[in-house]
Amino acid sequence: xxxxxxxxxxxxxxxxxxxxxxxxxxxxxxxxxxxxxxxxxxxxxxxxxxxxxxxxxxxxxxxxxxxxxxxxxxxxxxxxxxxxxxxxxxxxxxxxxxxxxxxxxxxxxxxxxxxxxxxxxxxxxxxxxxxxxxxxxxxxxxxxxxxxxxxxxxxxxxxxxxxxxxxxxxxxxxxxxxxxxxxxxxxxxxxxxxxxxxxxxxxxxxxxxxxxxxxxxxxxxxxxxxxxxxxxxxxxxxxxxxxxxxxxxxxxxxxxxxxxxxxxxxxxxxxxxxxxxxxxxxxxxxxxxxxxxxxxxxxxxxxxxxxxxxxxxxxxxxxxxx
Length: 322
What we know:
By secondary structure, the chain is an alpha/beta fold. Helices cover about 35% and strands about 20% of the residues. The longest helix has 26 residues, at about 1-25. Mean pLDDT is about 90; it is low at about 1-25.
């Protein structure tokens, strides 16, 4: 009798587990691949993360991985998928293929991939349109960000498709047209290109002829000890996008955030045109702050560095996502 009761209790417990656990597992979304999103002239792959039960009319963030990374790993490691659950938005995660670049770098330096209507830039634009259509997203609240080569491609998307993005966040990335201005992507990365603010701005304006605005605002994160993409690139990004936005190159605010130097450059209307964060002592990577606090996000790993500041959280907050 005792054995029978124990067996019955065990069976009931198992049934309860079977009832509750599958529902939990099924409710947990995952990064998923999307096919058929357009002509895809850049031969990229599209992945996305959509929180369970996300209503229509929510923002979209495009997050571009760095070299040697992949879409899902960057989406989770950077903290963007966690923030999507917290704040209610979807994430588009483009992925490079080895057929395009052996190191899985987005080709921010190739003329055929950075022009409007061509190559990788056009593929990413098609992903945005697909996600807005599928999720009923808010086309006025689409943002783009990325690390390293993904940061370089973020600059590309802001320049070639400015009407699609309210703002962008470049992490350890490069100005638009830097490889062409420097004569080589490596000179751009390690030395920088000698351009005036107007010359930098002209490169962006030439990417979208006749466009009168509004242009996206820009936030830049850069490690002061980054020897892969030198900090001069943050200065050049600031010069490029302050010029595009009609601002000067004198910071209107200089302070610290989480102990790191932070500057704000405002345009003639007083709106923020560019923000910069110099992450003192950080090498090449995405700043994260692992933990469960409101300002924390991300998981440390290769090129994802725990510096007690989560760039994704800072960006999302400044963009009004949460």
